[in-house]
Each structure stands twice: as C-alpha cells, then as structure tokens.
Amino acid sequence: MNPSAPKPRLFGDHFLRSLADPEQQLIEHLRGLCRSHFGPQAAEVARQDVFAWDTFRLLAREGIVATAFPEAYGGSDARQVLRVRIIEELARVCSTAASIVTGTDLSSRAIVAGASDAIKQQLVPKLCSGELQSAFALTEPGAGSDVRGLQTTMRRSGDGYVINGAKKFITRASTADWFVVVGRAEEDATNFIAVLMPRDAAGLDVSPEVGKLGWYGVPISSLRFDGVQVPASHRLGAEGEGFSLAQDALLRARIGHAAMALGRAIGAVEIAAAYATDRSTFGKPLGGHQGVQWMLADMLTQIESSRALITLTAEKYDRGDTDVAIFASMAKMQATDLCMKVVTDALQLTGGRGYLQDFPLERFFRDAKLNQIGEGASEVHKTVIGRDLVRRARNAERNPCLRDGSLVDY
Ligand SMILES: Cc1cc2nc3c(=O)[nH]c(=O)nc-3n(C[C@H](O)[C@H](O)[C@H](O)COP(=O)(O)OP(=O)(O)OC[C@H]3O[C@@H](n4cnc5c(N)ncnc54)[C@H](O)[C@@H]3O)c2cc1C
Predict the structure, then answer these.
(1) 159 in the same domain as 95
(2) pLDDT of residue 3 exceeding 70
(3) Global pTM?
(4) Are residues 75 and 124 in the same domain?
(5) Which ligand 1 atom is at minimum distance from the Cα of 376?
(6) Could you tell me the pLDDT band of residue 231, with boundaries at 50, 70 and 90?
(7) What is the rounded CA–CA span in Å between residue 91 and residue 208?
C-alpha cells in the first residue's frame, strides 16, 4: 500500500458511485482542496466574523460557485446529486465554505429563473467568476416563518416600482452588489413581486454587520428601503410570481442546508472517533467501552439514513418530481435535527477537550444551530410534512387490512 495515498474514509464512498466520471473527479479535486485549504483554514475563518474573501475566491476560481449556474451563462449547471456531495464535502470541514455554496443558490436562483436574458448575460458570468455577489432579501421584522406576512411594498410608478420597507437577517448584505428583494404590490397585497436592486440604489440603507453565534465568515445585515426606484426591466419573472420564485430559491437552499448539516455531522463523528482512538480511560481506549461504541453506532446509522434521504431528494429535484418540496422539508428537518444531536454527542464524547476553542467541535456545535432555523425552522417543516400527509390520506388507497366504509363506527 502506498503510504502517501489517502486513507479510506470512515464513511464510505458508496454515494459517489452513481456520479459520472467528471463529477467524481470534481469531488476528488474538492477533497484535495479540503485537505490543503478549507480544512486547515477553517478555524481561522471562524475566528473572525468578517466575510471570508479567500474562501469565496478559491471556490469561485475552482469553478465550485459556477456549479449553481446554467452553462449558457458561464456556469456548469451541476446536477443536485453532485451539488449535495460538494456541500457535504465542504461542510465536513468548514461551514463557511459550504454556506457560500448554499447561499449562492439562495441568492441567485431567482436571477437564473426570472431575470431577462439581457440581465443574465450581464450578471451571471460575473456571479460565476466571483466578480459580483448577490444576496436574497425575503425575511422582515414581521415576517420570518410566516413569510406571507411580508410588509415591503412595491408601487407602480412610470416604468418601474417605488419600494418601501425593511428586511433583516440578510446574509452577505455587506458584500453583495445586487439584492433579490421580494415584496408585495402596494395596490394588491396578494400580488408578490421580486426585483433585482443594485447596491448603490438611492434610498437603500445597509446596516452594519450584526453579531451572531456561528456561521462566521458570512455576515448578516438589515436593509431599509426608503422610496427606492427600480426599473420594470429589473423585475424577476412576471408580477405575481415573486412568491413562487422565492419558494424555488428556498427549495434548492433547503436541500443545501440538509447536505451541509449532513457533512458537519460526518465531520463530527470522524473527530469523535479519532479522539476515542487516541484517548484511554479506565485502562482501555475510550472506543473500547461499549457505551461509547453504541453512541458512535447510533450516529453512523442515522447519518447513513440521512444521506440516503438527501440523495433521494436530490434525484427527485433533478427529475423534476412534483413531490420534491415535501422531500426537501423531510431531508432538511431530519438532517439538521440529527446534526445538532450528533454534534452535541460528539462533543460529549470528547469531554473537556471538545469544549475548548482550539478543537473543531466547538465551532461545529455553534454552526449546527442555524441549520435548524434558517430556510424554515424544523417546526415549520414538520407542519408542512404533516399537513401534506393528512391531505393526501383522504384520497390514498386504504390498507387492505381495513374493512370498507367509515372506520368511525363499529
Ligand atoms: C444567520 C442568519 C442568516 C439568515 N440569512 C437570511 C437571508 O440571507 N435572507 C433571508 O431572507 N432570511 C435570512 N435569514 C432568516 C431566516 O430564514 C429566518 O430566521 C427563519 O426563516 C425563521 O424566521 P424568524 O427568525 O423570524 O423566526 P420566527 O418566525 O419568529 O419563529 C421563531 C420560532 O418559532 C417556531 N415557530 C414558528 N412558526 C411555527 C409554527 N407554525 N409552528 C410551530 N413552531 C413555529 C420555530 O421554532 C421558530 O424557530 C437568516 C437568519 C439567520 C439567523
């Protein structure tokens, strides 16, 4: 065996086998970058909550950012089954790098899906190369989980819109050149509109960056719109399509959040297993205690289930299955809740060492929480999944063990 060859992974490569050769080569290349750059630099990136320019530029230079965009505009239009593996690999070592990839979906999907060809020709190649950045501005002080409660208004004026309102929690607002802003028509509150707003628009105020628990390297800010004028040519999609464009962006980003949580959980188990090998307690290696083996076994088994659900969801996305949104809710809720538990248990297994700042689990622990909140909190996804099940049960084939007719009487 070649001693310099990479050792086998604790988590198998079985999910890579369905990828085409060039896709597998991209993953191999990315793994090299994780070993040489993203992994070793992750702690330093997470030490400062400023935008991680080096990480972003490397991802752009290596064509990883471009995987989100169509080939016609300079991207490589990667399948979701490849994108989830890219995000998983990055999140295994660095949430910042992974969130730059998922954030690209969130912030630019509506541009790809709804902008005119002229705007796409102008912007998308530069979004691919990292010359430009966009941010996605949906959440408001009064509308987070209940996103239909948006209060930002867009009033028709001449050949364009006048926009008033506020947004909060906007990732990369401090570095974005363009904002995808979703609001509602002032004249008709049921009419949601999405527009592209340039950073230098008169009346747009971007707040200073706001401190947070984790996800360092991708700062957030609030926005205020005070009579901002945007030409109609900057509208994304038709009037009334703003909400569906936002949902389309959130769908891809939710699958990304699931993959990010999965990758972080994988990384946490790798770290805990290594500690259990190096550390001895009560006269034997930590990993020799059955209680520790059981904890690791639970983590491994649940992570592989999560991987399978995420892969299935990505396949559904690539096929355009109509039920992909429900699967994305299931994958996101399951993977992000699991990640929080796995990271907590992994930190427990590494004892006081895991609690120290120079050990990666402290960072994984802080980063894990946001995946359960952003792009729809777990409770909201649970509601969506349950509501859909109850609705479908009315017309679904009944279990053959049941007798015909209503089950209410006996
Ligand atoms: C670091 C960070 C980055 C973000 N980036 C962006 C961005 O780039 N663009 C953007 O538009 N937004 C962004 N967000 C906003 C994010 O999507 C919202 O925080 C999220 O959707 C939840 O909304 P909220 O915080 O207003 O929570 P709330 O709506 O106040 O809900 C609070 C909690 O109540 C519970 N809850 C809510 N509704 C229900 C229900 N029906 N049933 C049961 N429980 C419920 C959930 O536990 C939820 O976490 C970001 C947020 C953070 C923290």
Answers:
(1) no
(2) no
(3) 0.97
(4) yes
(5) 21
(6) very high
(7) 27
